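User: Teach me something about this protein's shape.
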Amino acid sequence: MSKVPPVMDPETLSTAFTLLFRQGRSPPSCPAPDDMDLLNRIRDAVPAVSPSVCREALIRVRRLSFDAAEIGAGFHDGQYGEGESARAAALAELEERNAGFSEAEYRTAFSVGLMWAGL
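Assistant: First, the predicted structure itself:
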């Protein structure tokens, strides 16, 4: 049974997601983009939110990025089966492991995870 994560500010989480997945498309094992730089950019984008909320958003998005790469690799290896049902199963696992993102963000994370897994 998984632990339910604390409620996250959706704007902060979305900001962190956008910075990592849309502007910093490097594999999660790559040192760039730098976490401190990302944290500062999140704080600049949502200045009304506490630094701890920004840090938690970055942690969640980083976890999503690692899971997206792992699930993408499993998808490439056929661990989820074939066809659309395999894609749906992989997306469902990504969502189960990482609560709080939008459907569009899960689809983007999965697509980027497939790209990272193919490197």
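Now, about its shape. The mean pLDDT is 86. The chain has one domain: 10-117. If you'd like, I can walk through any region in more detail.
User: That's plenty for now, thanks!
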